[in-house]
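User: Some background: our group keeps a shared notebook of sequences we're curious about, and every so often someone picks one and asks for a predicted structure to add to the entry. Today it's my turn. The entry only has the sequence so far, pasted here. Could you supply the structure so I can complete it?
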Amino acid sequence: MTREPLDPIQRDDVMRALAAVPGLLVELDTTLSRSDAVGAAKSAGTASAGARQRALPYHKGASDAHAALARTLRYYALRVSFLARERAPRTSRDQAVFLRKQLPRIPGDAPVLIGIHPALPAAVDAARAIIDRPAERLCIGLCDCGTRLYATDGQSTVRCLGCDREHSVMERRVDMLSQARDMVGTATELARILPWFSGKPVTANAIRQWAARGKLTGRHVGGEIVYRIGDVLRVHEAGRW
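Assistant: Of course. Here's the predicted structure to add to the notebook entry:
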């Protein structure tokens, strides 16, 4: 990190980057919603009826960009909070708002700002690069030869790069759904990935309301409440709002 004082041009760069953060976070979440969720599933403990797997939204580029941006915001929000004698906000969005409010009051040579330029603008630029790329391919499982298959939105067939066999995207989605029904995720995670299976949007709030009304049964895993994909789809497809 550079120890040079933050000059006016650099300060403007940082302020513009901070102003862009709330919108970028929304766009990154949208990119993550087109994720290789089932392919990235991992074990999340056991339930009384047997083991359950955790389905996590996964898009390598968007996930890495989101994490890098969050780390940078958290690092500087904590540093500035000591100087401002205010508690640093907990969310990335609020940290960006906090930094944007505090930055004009802090001298350019203040130690808490060391390295904020180019670190923060670079993190924002990396997030933009992920969002501005052409539509990401979605993983639709493995071919019989073991090669991972990918398809873009609207694509009806894909050809395996390993053995040249052609696959129906719809059939692969059905196969993935049958494998995913016993996997679990939080309401937020499932709201991101279920439209890929059902073709219909579902909100995290709706999932929580179904649970509150007894339509779904959640389980506590790692300090979070998770729901079985098959159960959520059953309620969602029945239209029981």
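Suggested note for the entry: The first helix runs from residue 8 to 32. The chain has a mean pLDDT of 79.
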